[in-house]
């Protein structure tokens, strides 16, 4: 008898949505860091400090800080690709990964826009071109400049 998949179509599937972890995302990252530290291991990135709660750009600064730390080591940075299977990322890939790690529901519009303004001020039309035609140090300094601009507003 050939396989036609009919028994799978007739079988109801019940799925329960995954519950988001309780607590703030940075607190969860810090707990993970502490549990790994107890085992003699560490996270491959730094957990950024909390931005002041009164700041309207607090979450944007947190995303940019985490994204910067994801590619701070040049071995974790890549050009001409957003992300690789071995964990290397470009600037945009790092922002996207930071949004995922922090468990944010909205897309990375604000962090992306802040980094785009830095790229434009440096003569690039987008972040991808800045990443692909700059050195690692220049890309890291773009994150620093974006964070500085947000904190000084």
What can be said about this structure in brief?
With 153 residues, this protein is mainly alpha-helical. The protein has helices at residues 6-10, 25-38, 58-70, 91-101, 109-121, 127-132, 136-151. Helix 3 (58-70) runs antiparallel to helix 7.
Structure description:
- With 153 residues, the protein is mostly helical.
- It has one domain.
- The chain is built from seven helices and no strands.
- Helix 3 packs across helix 5, helix 3 packs antiparallel against helix 7 and helix 5 packs across helix 7.
- The radius of gyration is 19 Å and the shape is globular.
The proportion of residues forming helix, as a percent range, comes to 40-55%
General shape: globular
What Rg, in angstroms, do the CA atoms define?
19 Å
Q: How many DSSP-defined strands? A: 0
């Amino acid at each position: 008898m050939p396989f036609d998949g009919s028994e799978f179509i007739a079988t109801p599937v019940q799925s329960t949505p995954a519950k988001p972890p309780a607590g703030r995302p940075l607190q969860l990252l810090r707990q993970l860091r502490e549990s790994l530290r107890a085992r003699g291991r560490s996270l491959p990135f730094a957990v950024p400090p909390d931005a002041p709660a009164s700041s309207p750009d607090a979450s944007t600064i947190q995303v940019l800080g985490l994204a910067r730390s994801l590619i701070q080591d040049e071995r974790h940075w890549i050009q001409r690709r957003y992300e690789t299977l071995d964990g290397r990322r470009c600037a945009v890939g790092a922002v996207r990964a930071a949004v995922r790690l922090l468990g944010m529901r909205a897309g990375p519009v604000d962090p992306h826009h802040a980094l785009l303004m830095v790229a434009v001020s440096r003569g690039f039309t987008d972040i991808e071109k800045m990443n692909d035609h700059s050195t690692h140090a220049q890309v890291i300094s773009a994150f620093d400049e974006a964070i500085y601009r947000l904190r000084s507003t």
